[in-house]
Specification:
Chain lengths: 602, 602
C-alpha cells in the first residue's frame, strides 16, 4: 500500500538532493543537527501523526465544535492528541530552544508539519496558531511583554488568535471600527465585534492571547489609523500568573462547509465595558506590525492548501492501484479486469496531481530555505535579495497552492468515482477542508492584487527579475543535461512570455487604465505559479538526471525516472495551456471593466 | 435585488430570439401553445419554485435522509412541496397529455425545470426520476407493461429508479453479477446487491419501479449478457392494483458530501428469495435498452450541473451588487466604499460565470430543440442528422456542464469570500450538491471516452463535421455584422484548431497507440466544450446585434449590450486559454502512459 499522508521519499529528495540541506547543517546555527537526527525527527513525526492524529481526523469533522454559553467545545476526540502534540513539543520547531522551539531549519520544520497538518489540520492548528502571535510580540513587544508571552505561545501552553475581520471590514481591513481607549494604567479598553475568528475561543488551553486590530480615538481614517493590541482571555499579571477573566467572549460560531473541527468565532469585546488589552508597538502602527503575522499566516495557509492536495494524491494513488475495474485498453477482450491506474484518463489525473503536488512541495520548501538564507546572509544586500524573493513568493505560496491544492483534491475525488463523494472515504473531507485556503487570510483576488500592485509594480520589477534569473539558471543547467533540452527550451519560452505579461500588466497598472491590468491580476498569478511549477519540475529533472548518471539503486532509479517523466508531463502537457493563458493576459481584453453594472443581468 | 434562481430574461432570449421557438409553435404538434400560454406556465413555475421549493432547500440539506429498518425517510420538510409538485403536474412536461404530460416543446420544459431544479434539486428529483423508467417501458415494453406503468411513472404517482452499479461493477457495468432466473409464470427471480442507487427507496410515493440490470444463467460475459428487468417495490397486479411487498430492500444509505436530501441507497434483491421482476424487451438486450435511459439521465445530470452554476451566478451577482467593501481603484482616496461589483477581479469572476452560465443554457436548450427537430423531421436522413448531433453532444452536455457548472459554484464562493464558506449563505450547498454531477451517470472520464471512442472514431467524424458546419454558419453570419468580425475570426481559428485536434486524436485512437489518444480525451472534451461556448456566445452576439439594429427599448438595450460584451470576454479572454489546451492535445505528450506504475511514488 502507498504511504499514507505524504511521500517521505519525495521530502528527502527535496531536502537533500534539490535544496542541499546538508550545506545548511554546516552553518553554526544548525550545527546541533545531522542528517540522521533530522531523519529521526521526521520519522517520529510520521509515527505520531499516523498513531494519534489521523485516527481522529474524520471523527473531528463529524463531531465539529459547539458553543455553550460563550464557551466553545472542540471535538472531544481532539483533547488527548492535542495534549500529546503539545507535550511532544511539535510547535514552533524552527524557533530557538530557549524560546521553546527546536532550532530546526525552516524547511525541515515544514517536513515535520507535512505529516502533522496532513494527518489532521484542524487539530494541530489550535496548537500551531500561537506562533504567529508570539512572533509578533517577539519582534515588536517590550521586554516584559516578550517575557510574559513568547515562550508560552511558541509552546502552545497558551494559544493565539488573530482578530482582524469585522462584518463591514473584511478584505478592506481599513474600514474597521473596534475602538481602544487608553486607561490611566497604560492598558487600553476595547469595544467592538470581530467575526470569522479562527480558534478565537476553545477549551484546549489555559489561556488564549488575541492580537486585535482597533482604532484609538482621533486616529486617521483607513489603515493608517489602526493600532494593534494584545488581548488575553485571562488577564496576565506581571509575574506571569493568570488574573481575572477578560471581557472578550465568543458570541457565535459559524457552520461551515469544512474544517468542522476548527472554531470560527464571532468575538465580542467589551460588552460589559471591561475588555482590557496591551498596546503592541506604537499607536497607529498596527497594520505594519500585523503584516508580519499576516505574511506568516499566508504562507501557512498556502501550505495548508498544498497539504490537503498532497494527502489526497496519496489516497488517490493508493486507490488507483487497488481498485480493479475495466479492461486494459490494449489488452485482450477476455483478459481479467485491471487496477484503474492502467487507464489513460486515470493516469492523466494522477500525473497532473503528482506534477503539482511535488512542484508545490519544492516551491514551498524552497521558499522556507530563503528564510534561512536571509537569516544567515553576510551582507544587507544579500539579505534584502532573499527577503525580496520571499515577499514576491508569499502571495503565490498562498493563492496558487490553495488553488492547485484544491484542484488536486477535486481530481482525487474523480479518481475515486462515486466512492469519493461518500464520507466513508477520506477525500471529500480534504476537498471541503481545502476550499477555505483560497478564502481566509486574504482571498485569491487579494493575493493577486498584492502580487501585481505591491510586488511587481511597487519595486519596479526588481524581485521579479531576481526570480526570472533563478529560473534561467535552472534552464541553463538543464540544457547541459542529456535528454532535458526540449524541456529547457519549452520553459525558457514560457518564462519569456511571463516576463512579457508582467511588463504589460505593470505598465498598465501604473496608467489610468489600472482596472484593465487588475482584471488580469489573478490569471497572471496563476500563470506565474505555473511557470514556477515548470521551474521546480525542470530543477527536479536536472537533479534526477545527475543522480541516474551517478548510478542509483533500483528503487531510487524508479523514483528518478518518475521525476523526469512527470516533469515531461507538466512541461509538455500542462505548460502549453499556460501559454494560452499568457496570450489572453497580454491581449488584456477589457470587457469586464467595460460592462455597465446593469448589463450583468436582472 | 437580482432575480433569484435564474434569469428569466435570458431564458426568453434563448427561446424566442436565439432558437425561434415560435416557429416550433406553428407545427401541428405544438399548435395548442402560444407564446403567451408558455410564458404563463414559466411564470407559474417560477412562483411555485420560489414559494414552495426554495424555502426548504437548505433545510432539506440539514435534515438529510435516514434509514430505519429498511425504510428511507426523506427530509420531512420535503413532503408537502413534493405533493404539491406532483399535484401540479410539473413532471414529464414534454410528454403527450394522454400519458400525463403537457406536450411542451422540450426546450420549454427545460425552462420550467430550470426554476424547479434551481430551487431544490434533490426534492424535485424524486418526482422527476420516474420519467426515464417510464420512457424505457414506453419504448421497449409490451402493451400491457406500458398500460400498467408509463402514465403512473410520468406523473410521479410512482417513482422510478435505475439499478446498475454493483460494488465490483461501477464504470465497468459489464462486470455485474446480479442474477435473474426465469420462473414458470414468465416473471424472473432476482438475486444481488446494487449500490449508489439514487432515490432507490424513500417514503414519498406509493410505489417505486426499479429497472434492474442482471444476468440470466448462461448469458455471455460482459455487456452482451446483460438483461433488464422491471422490479416494483410493491408487486403490480395485472389490473394495476398493488400486490405484496416485493423482496427488494434498502440495506444501507451513503453519507455524502452533498445532495443530502437525496437517498443514495444500497439495494438488496432477493435476500429472502422472493424478489420478482418482469423482463423488459428480450434477454441480453439490457444494455441497448438501458442506454436510452442512460442518455436521458446524462442530459439531466448535465442540466443539474448547469443549474447549480446558474443559481450560484444569480446569488453571487446579487451579493456583488449589495456588498460594500473597499474603494474604487480609480476613485478618490476619501471616496466612500463601493459595492464589490466595481472591483476588476470580482468582475472577472462574474464575467466568467455569466459567459459560461448563459453559454451552457444556450447549448442545453439548443440540444433539446434537436429532439423536437428529430421528432418533426420529414425524412429519415434529416432525423438521423439531428440524432447524430444529439449523440455527439450528450457526453458534452453531461461532463462539460458538470465541470463548468461546478467551477461557477466555486467562483461564486470566491465572490462571497468568507461568507461563501458558511452555511448561512446558499452557495456552499450549491457547490457540494453540484460536485456529484461530474461523477454519477458516468464520470467525466467515461464521458470523454464516449466522445472520443463512440462519437468521433466510430462514425468516422460524421457528426463532428455536422457540428463544425453549424459553427461555421454562425461564424459566417457574424462576419456580416458590424463589430463582430474580430470575434468571428477568433472562433474560426479555434474551430479549425479543434478539428485538427479531433483528427489527430481519432487517427491515434485507431492505431496501436490508442492509450496515447485516450490520455487526451478529457482535455479534448473540455476544448470542444469551450468551442461550443464560443459558438453559443457568437450566436448570441449576432442575435443581440440584430436586435439593437432594429431599435430596442432601454432595458432591452442593456441586455443586448451585455450579451455582446460578455461574448467579447469569452472569445478574447477565455478562448485563448483553450487554444493553449488544443496545442497541448495536438502535441499529444505520452508521458502519462510511459510511466511505470512504480514511478508514481511509494
Amino acid at each position: 500500500m502507498t504511504q499514507l499522508i505524504t511521500d517521505r521519499r519525495d521530502i528527502d529528495f527535496i531536502l537533500y538532493e534539490q535544496l542541499d540541506t546538508q550545506a545548511l547543517l554546516k552553518e553554526e546555527k544548525y550545527r546541533g543537527f545531522t542528517r540522521k537526527s533530522l531523519d529521526m525527527m521526521i520519522t517520529e513525526a510520521r509515527n505520531f501523526a499516523l498513531k494519534e492524529l489521523l485516527p481522529v481526523c474524520a471523527e473531528g469533522d463529524r463531531q465539529g465544535v459547539s458553543l455553550d454559553n460563550g464557551e466553545v467545545k472542540v471535538p472531544p476526540c481532539f483533547r488527548r492528541p492535542h495534549n500529546l502534540y503539545v507535550e511532544g513539543a511539535w510547535t514552533s520547531l524552527h524557533e530557538p530552544e530557549e524560546l521553546g522551539g527546536q532550532g530546526l531549519p525552516p524547511s525541515v520544520a515544514r517536513a515535520v508539519q507535512e505529516f502533522m497538518v496532513g494527518a489532521n489540520y484542524t487539530l494541530v492548528n489550535y496548537a500551531n496558531f500561537g506562533h504567529g502571535t508570539g512572533k509578533m510580540i517577539d519582534l515588536f513587544g517590550t521586554p516584559e511583554q516578550k517575557k510574559l508571552f513568547v515562550k508560552k505561545l511558541y509552546t502552545a501552553q497558551w494559544t493565539g488568535g488573530m482578530l482582524l475581520t469585522e462584518s463591514e471590514a473584511g478584505s478592506d481591513v481599513g474600514a474597521l471600527t473596534t475602538e481602544a481607549v487608553k486607561n490611566p494604567d497604560g492598558t487600553y479598553s476595547l469595544t467592538g465585534t470581530k467575526i470569522f475568528i479562527t480558534n478565537g475561543e476553545h477549551d484546549l488551553a489555559e489561556n488564549i492571547i488575541s492580537p486585535v486590530l482597533a482604532r484609538v480615538p482621533g486616529a486617521p481614517a483607513g489603515t493608517r489609523g489602526i493600532s494593534i493590541f494584545i488581548v488575553p482571555k485571562y488577564w496576565v499579571n506581571s509575574d506571569g500568573s493568570l488574573g481575572e477573566r477578560n471581557d472578550i467572549w465568543c458570541t457565535g460560531i459559524e457552520e461551515k462547509m469544512g474544517i468542522h473541527g476548527s472554531a470560527c468565532c464571532t468575538m465580542t469585546l467589551g460588552s460589559k465595558g471591561r475588555c482590557r488589552g496591551f498596546l503592541l508597538g506604537e499607536e497607529n502602527q498596527g497594520m505594519k506590525i500585523m503584516f508580519h503575522m499576516m505574511n506568516e499566516a499566508r504562507l501557512n495557509v498556502g501550505f495548508q492548501g498544498f497539504v490537503h492536495g498532497a494527502v489526497s494524491y496519496q489516497y488517490a494513488l493508493n486507490y488507483a492501484r487497488e481498485r480493479v475495474q475495466g479492461k486494459d485498453l490494449t489488452g485482450a477482450k477476455d483478459a481479467p479486469s485491471v487496477p484503474i491506474i492502467r487507464h489513460p484518463d486515470v493516469r492523466r489525473m494522477l500525473m497532473w496531481m503528482k506534477a503539482h503536488v511535488e512542484g508545490l512541495r519544492s516551491f514551498i520548501y524552497y521558499t522556507e530555505t530563503l528564510f534561512a538564507k536571509a537569516d544567515l546572509a553576510c551582507t544587507t544586500e544579500e539579505c534584502d535579495y532573499y527577503k525580496a524573493l520571499i515577499e514576491l513568493f508569499t502571495p503565490l505560496v498562498k493563492a496558487y497552492s490553495a488553488q492547485r491544492g484544491f484542484e488536486v483534491t477535486v481530481q482525487a475525488m474523480q479518481v475515486y468515482g462515486g466512492a469519493g463523494y461518500c464520507k466513508e472515504y477520506p477525500v471529500e473531507q480534504q476537498m471541503r477542508d481545502c476550499k477555505i485556503a483560497s478564502i481566509y487570510e486574504g482571498t485569491d483576488g487579494i493575493q493577486a492584487m498584492d502580487l501585481l500592485g505591491r510586488k511587481l509594480v511597487a519595486d519596479g520589477g526588481k524581485a521579479f527579475n531576481y526570480f526570472i534569473k533563478q529560473v534561467q539558471q535552472t534552464i541553463g543547467a538543464a540544457k547541459e543535461k542529456n535528454g532535458l533540452g526540449h524541456m529547457a527550451l519549452a520553459l525558457e519560452n514560457a518564462s519569456h512570455r511571463l516576463a512579457e505579461a508582467a511588463a504589460v500588466l505593470s505598465k498598465t497598472a501604473k496608467s489610468p487604465n489600472v482596472k484593465q491590468a487588475f482584471a488580469h491580476a489573478f490569471p497572471f498569478l496563476e500563470a506565474m505559479g505555473d511557470v514556477i511549477m515548470g521551474w521546480m519540475r525542470l530543477w527536479r529533472a536536472v537533479v534526477a538526471t545527475d543522480a541516474l548518471a551517478k548510478g542509483a539503486k533500483a528503487k531510487d532509479q524508479e523514483f528518478y525516472l518518475g521525476q523526469i517523466k512527470t516533469s515531461e508531463f507538466f512541461i509538455h502537457a500542462v505548460l502549453p495551456c499556460t501559454l494560452g493563458k499568457m496570450d489572453s493576459i497580454i491581449h488584456m481584453c477589457n470587457a469586464a471593466n467595460e460592462m455597465e453594472e446593469a448589463w450583468f443581468g436582472n
